[in-house]
């Protein structure tokens, strides 16, 4: 029952009994109590998400146990605040549910070229040298998926990969077979939050853990498509296009 419904019910009760003055005092008291309970409940819900720190080894171990149990978490990154989880089919379904989207692959964060090569064809079109110049960094690169790569990594013929410039993330990823799914911490189509306080409660309830390092970037990664040979800009972002053009030695479409 909402506050207005509750107060209306009490108002009708007292009005019928000609107890309006008493009702006014009680009305105010009920309103104060209701507001207090609502605030306490909100505080209790907010505290359900446990806060950890990227620089604390104990927190990293706690986070790894959480990830390996196929749970999601919210974390600060070198780009935007993200929902992340172990690359595994049950986790993919959880992210789809919390994002309210399906059929669209997520970025996979890896910690090394070795791990990227296990998922994607980085030798094709001589792209490996370029990747080594811009990774770690805020560039997401769409590559051809390696033959035999599971569909839960990407249901498309391509896969989007990035090595983050973030020591905590790379430490966590180094203990995982493929890496981490990564997506912005919002419901699909809604505004991307800058802080944990802006993340909607349904996402907090699903993720349980929030890990950060005291600061959060707010610009998404630059996305480029290298799957066809020529590089194409899909989305401008945190990595300057001018720098990419210098690395690639020509203008990008």
Shape: globular
Helix count from the secondary structure assignment: 9
Helix fraction, binned, reads: 25-40%
Please give the CATH class of the largest domain.
Alpha Beta
Instruction: Classify the fold: give the CATH topology of the largest domain.
Output: DHBP synthase
CATH architectural grouping of the largest domain:
Alpha-Beta Complex
SSE series: HHEHEEHEHHEEHEHEEEH
Q: How many β strands by DSSP?
A: 10
**Proportion of strand residues:** 15-25%
Please give the radius of gyration in angstroms: 24 Å
Folded structure, characterized:
- There is one protein chain.
- The chain is an alpha/beta fold.
- It has 2 domains: 3-46; 50-248, DHBP synthase.
- The protein has 9 helices and 10 strands.
- The protein has helices at 3-16, 20-46, 57-68, 89-99, 113-119, 128-134, 167-173, 201-207, 241-248; strands at 50-53, 73-75, 82-86, 107-109, 139-144, 158-162, 180-184, 209-212, 222-225, 232-235.
- The chain has a 10-stranded mixed sheet with strand order 1-8-2-3-7-4-6-5-9-10, sandwiched between helices.
- Strand 9 and strand 10 (232-235) form a beta hairpin.
- Helix 1 packs antiparallel against helix 2 (20-46).
- The protein starts with a helix and ends in a 5-residue tail after the last helix.
């Amino acid at each position: 029952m909402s506050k207005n419904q509750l107060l209306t019910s009490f108002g009708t009760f007292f009005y019928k009994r000609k107890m309006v003055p008493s009702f006014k005092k009680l009305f105010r008291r009920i309103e104060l109590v209701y507001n207090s309970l609502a605030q306490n409940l909100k505080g209790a819900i907010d505290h359900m998400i446990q806060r950890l720190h990227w620089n604390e080894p104990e927190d990293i171990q706690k986070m790894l146990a959480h990830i390996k149990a196929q749970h999601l978490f919210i974390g600060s990154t070198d780009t935007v605040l993200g929902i992340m989880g172990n690359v595994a089919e049950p986790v993919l379904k959880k992210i789809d549910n919390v994002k309210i989207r399906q059929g669209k692959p997520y970025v996979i964060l890896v910690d090394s070229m070795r791990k990227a090569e296990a998922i994607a064809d980085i030798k094709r079109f001589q792209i490996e040298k370029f990747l080594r110049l811009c990774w770690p960094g805020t560039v997401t690169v769409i590559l051809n998926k390696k033959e035999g790569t599971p569909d839960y990594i990407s249901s498309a013929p391509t896969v989007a990969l990035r090595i983050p410039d973030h020591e905590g993330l790379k430490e966590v990823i180094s203990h995982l077979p493929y890496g981490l799914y990564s997506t912005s911490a919002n419901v699909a189509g809604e505004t991307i939050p800058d802080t944990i306080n802006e993340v909607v409660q349904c996402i907090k309830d699903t993720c349980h853990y929030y890990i950060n390092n005291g600061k959060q970037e707010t610009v998404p990664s630059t996305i480029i498509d290298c799957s066809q040979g020529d590089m194409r800009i899909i989305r401008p972002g945190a990595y300057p296009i001018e720098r990419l053009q210098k690395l690639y030695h020509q203008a990008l479409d």
